[in-house]
């Protein structure tokens, strides 16, 4: 597909200029000023164009709980939020074979055809007994494996898994937590597990990514690890980065002001590599019955632009790095720059849009978020994938 976006502010981690961008056959072929084109044209006056967003952590609840979300509703939410690539967490159970789940997700996503997904598999819940053998059977279909609740794996098992991942060039994504500790000690559990996994990562050289960092002390551990190796990365969710609603039920729990200040420092000094949503749709009744989670995929840009750029004065280049360039590098896809040869996956933003987050506005099947009523500036108005407009607010 061929398309030209004209007279728009072009942003990636290393670019901030007004100009035009041309996509031919799904790829960026020219970026410049006053480009000539015979193709369909979008007038981008007063708008911003960035590489579309990449989410390293989202739950589409498919096939396990499709009343809460499925690949279609999740995809519709994703494109509304400016995303074209989602790393899906494993939302299946023991009744589904891993291979069957992978085949189901990939073929259903292909049929829907809106975004690209990668399906992670989980170690720690389903795969304790024969972890390495299962990785052997699927390692040509996956780029990463997730250690869910890392405390479920012994040092010996974790060491074996890390050596296997290093050998097969798989990224290990770690949800560092210890749910065996008494409630109220989630930060302690996160620090202990981050330290343990980090030390084993240093020993093995395994590429290790800590997802949804949620405590300042765990961030300090990660900063120390990153001084020793470039194989450690991490992400934070918008709700952990911004929300002070410490009673809102998400896992890991939201923290107070002191941690939030440290997260901002982590963004500024580069300790935090990426924003990931941990998009976790839950019905109201489920939340009342003790389940946790927050939807995030439709809100992440609005929240981050409002908080990081408008309130804290950070540049849009930083947002682009956190939401496109870095997560692309972490998961191993060529994306995140507005340069010739890169894919024509773009997000167009109206930076002046002012709106409040409404419960009624979600494409997702759920609206659980601590940000209802929160006023944001800036909104995704178009999402383009391989030169096709796949979301258009107008
Ligand atoms: Zn999650």
UniProtKB/TrEMBL annotation:
<dbReference type="InterPro" id="IPR050138">
    <property type="entry name" value="DHOase/Allantoinase_Hydrolase"/>
</dbReference>
<keyword id="KW-0378">Hydrolase</keyword>
<dbReference type="InterPro" id="IPR032466">
    <property type="entry name" value="Metal_Hydrolase"/>
</dbReference>
<dbReference type="GO" id="GO:0006145">
    <property type="term" value="P:purine nucleobase catabolic process"/>
</dbReference>
<protein>
    <submittedName>
        <fullName>Dihydroorotase</fullName>
    </submittedName>
</protein>
<dbReference type="GO" id="GO:0046872">
    <property type="term" value="F:metal ion binding"/>
</dbReference>
<feature type="domain" description="Amidohydrolase-related">
    <location>
        <begin position="49"/>
        <end position="389"/>
    </location>
</feature>
<dbReference type="InterPro" id="IPR002195">
    <property type="entry name" value="Dihydroorotase_CS"/>
</dbReference>
<dbReference type="Pfam" id="PF01979">
    <property type="entry name" value="Amidohydro_1"/>
</dbReference>
<comment type="function">
    <text>Catalyzes the reversible cyclization of carbamoyl aspartate to dihydroorotate.</text>
</comment>
<dbReference type="GO" id="GO:0004038">
    <property type="term" value="F:allantoinase activity"/>
</dbReference>
<dbReference type="GO" id="GO:0005737">
    <property type="term" value="C:cytoplasm"/>
</dbReference>
<dbReference type="InterPro" id="IPR011059">
    <property type="entry name" value="Metal-dep_hydrolase_composite"/>
</dbReference>
<comment type="similarity">
    <text>Belongs to the metallo-dependent hydrolases superfamily. DHOase family. Class I DHOase subfamily.</text>
</comment>
<dbReference type="InterPro" id="IPR006680">
    <property type="entry name" value="Amidohydro-rel"/>
</dbReference>
<keyword id="KW-0479">Metal-binding</keyword>
């Amino acid at each position: 597909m061929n398309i030209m976006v004209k007279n728009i502010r072009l942003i990636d981690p290393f670019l901030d200029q007004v100009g035009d961008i041309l996509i031919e056959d799904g790829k960026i072929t020219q970026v410049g000023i006053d480009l000539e084109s015979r193709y369909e044209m979008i007038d981008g006056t007063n708008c911003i164009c960035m590489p579309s967003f990449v989410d390293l952590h989202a739950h589409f609840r498919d096939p396990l709980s499709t009343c809460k979300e499925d690949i279609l509703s999740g995809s519709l939410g994703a494109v509304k939020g400016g995303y074209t690539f989602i790393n899906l967490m494993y939302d299946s159970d023991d009744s589904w074979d891993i291979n069957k789940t992978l085949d189901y997700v990939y073929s259903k996503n292909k049929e829907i055809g809106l975004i690209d997904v990668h399906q992670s598999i989980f170690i720690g819940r389903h795969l304790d007994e024969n972890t390495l053998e299962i990785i052997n059977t699927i390692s040509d279909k996956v780029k990463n494996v997730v250690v869910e609740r890392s405390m479920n794996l012994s040092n010996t098992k974790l060491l074996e898994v890390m050596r296997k991942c290093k050998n097969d060039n798989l990224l290990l994504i770690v949800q560092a937590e210890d749910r065996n500790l008494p409630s109220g000690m989630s930060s302690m559990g996160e620090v202990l597990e981050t330290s343990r996994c980090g030390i084993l990562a240093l020993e093995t050289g395994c590429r290790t990514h800590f997802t949804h960092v949620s405590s300042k002390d765990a961030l300090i551990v990660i900063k120390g690890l990153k001084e020793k190796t470039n194989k450690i990365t991490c992400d934070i969710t918008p709700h952990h980065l911004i929300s002070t609603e410490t009673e809102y039920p998400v896992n890991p729990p939201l923290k107070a002001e002191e941690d939030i200040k440290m997260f901002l420092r982590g963004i500024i000094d580069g300790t935090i590599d990426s924003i990931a949503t941990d998009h976790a749709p839950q019905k109201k009744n489920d939340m009342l019955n003790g389940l946790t989670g927050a939807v995030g995929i439709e809100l992440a840009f609005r929240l981050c632009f409002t908080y990081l750029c408008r309130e804290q004065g950070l540049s849009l280049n930083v947002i682009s790095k956190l939401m496109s360039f870095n997560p692309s590098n972490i998961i191993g896809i060529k994306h995140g720059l507005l340069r010739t040869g890169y894919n024509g996956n773009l997000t167009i933003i109206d930076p002046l849009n002012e709106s409040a987050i409404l419960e009624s506005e979600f494409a997702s099947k759920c609206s659980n978020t601590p940000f209802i009523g929160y006023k944001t500036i800036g909104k995704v108005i178009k999402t383009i994938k391989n030169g096709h407009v796949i979301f258009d607010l107008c």
